């Protein structure tokens, strides 16, 4: 998990227009996350190469050409950061290269492009969220790099404390930063015998407020938490709509929630994130601890 002191980040590059944006955004990332080392990773997928290009000598030339291209892009960005390395892999499946490298290098944060208008379906990112043990930052090419607002998405579970702590850590990096916290309430799809819609909403509001106050008291939270009604929409779209309205730069969320079943949550809110346009980066926490160390 990202820490308050030193972080190793892995930046995923795919030789598309997205790479230029990610490298340009590294100035913000390195300052915000106290980056100690950057690892650039590109995987040349063997299964997509014709057989005549899979020889050791040819692969060596391909990897060197890719490495030089990444090197030139990084130097062109004029980012004053010397502790970096470039890794060009040749795995059949890119997720295998990411899995191996994040574990070998003890990566704290993986940075991926979240393409909005550029070509790409986000398939690799969805696989990596399930596979990798570290936190992930999904950055759209439309990112609001000048915005100073950070949004914590809370469900009042024990995992929400980590989401809040990371949000507070990021917001405290500058006096100009601003932290927002929300809980999205969604009406269960059930039939309430003898209750009107108004009565149902009232009961759910009272229950949500009760959970909120207990959570605030338990974890001694001082920030204001806004309750947002999903009103028939998916929780993910409600979060991103709120982020857009408030010009949020980074939305912070976790893969675990009240259910504590990680894969179900990934298949729900986190997975749904990829199906909605956004101008905000999405920080997905995979490892949980009381405070960023």
Automatic annotation (TrEMBL):
Q: Name one Pfam family in it.
A: Usp
**Domain of life of the organism encoding this protein:** Bacteria
- Which residues belong to the signal peptide in this entry? none
Q: Which SUPFAM superfamilies match?
A: Adenine nucleotide alpha hydrolases-like
Which Gene3D superfamilies does the record match to this protein? HUPs
InterPro entries to which the protein is assigned, alphabetical: Rossmann-like_a/b/a_fold, UspA
Q: Which residues form the UspA domain?
A: 8-140, 148-276
Membership in a protein family: Belongs to the universal stress protein A family.
| Protein name (database record) | Universal stress protein family protein
Lineage, opening ranks? Bacteria, Pseudomonadati, Bacteroidota, Sphingobacteriia, Sphingobacteriales
């Amino acid at each position: 998990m990202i820490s308050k002191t030193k972080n190793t980040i892995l930046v995923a590059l795919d030789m598309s227009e997205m790479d230029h944006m990610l490298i340009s955004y590294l100035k913000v990332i390195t300052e915000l996350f106290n980056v100690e080392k950057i690892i650039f990773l590109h995987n040349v997928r063997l299964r997509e190469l014709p057989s005549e290009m899979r020889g050791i000598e040819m692969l060596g030339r391909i990897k060197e050409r890719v490495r030089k291209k990444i090197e030139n892009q990084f130097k062109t960005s004029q980012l004053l950061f010397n502790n970096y390395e470039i890794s060009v892999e040749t795995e059949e499946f890119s997720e295998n290269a990411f899995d191996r490298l994040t574990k070998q290098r003890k990566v704290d944060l993986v940075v991926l492009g979240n393409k909005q208008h550029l070509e790409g379906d986000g398939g690799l990112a969805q696989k990596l969220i399930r596979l990798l043990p570290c936190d992930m930052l999904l950055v759209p090419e439309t990112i609001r790099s000048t915005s100073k607002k950070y949004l914590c998405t809370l469900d009042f579970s024990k995992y929400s404390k980590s989401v809040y702590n990371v949000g507070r850590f990021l917001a405290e990096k500058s006096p100009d930063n601003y932290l927002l916290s929300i809980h999205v309430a969604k009406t269960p799809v059930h039939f309430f015998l003898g209750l009107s819609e108004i009565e149902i909403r009232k009961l759910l509001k009272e229950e949500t407020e009760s959970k909120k106050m207990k959570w605030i008291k338990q974890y001694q939270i001082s920030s204001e938490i806004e309750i947002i009604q999903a009103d028939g929409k998916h929780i993910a779209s409600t979060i991103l709509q709120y982020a857009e309205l408030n010009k949020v730069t980074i939305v912070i969320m976790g893969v675990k929630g009240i259910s504590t079943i990680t894969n179900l949550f990934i298949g729900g809110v986190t997975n749904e994130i990829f199906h909605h346009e956004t101008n905000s980066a999405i920080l997905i926490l995979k490892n949980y601890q009381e405070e960023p160390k």
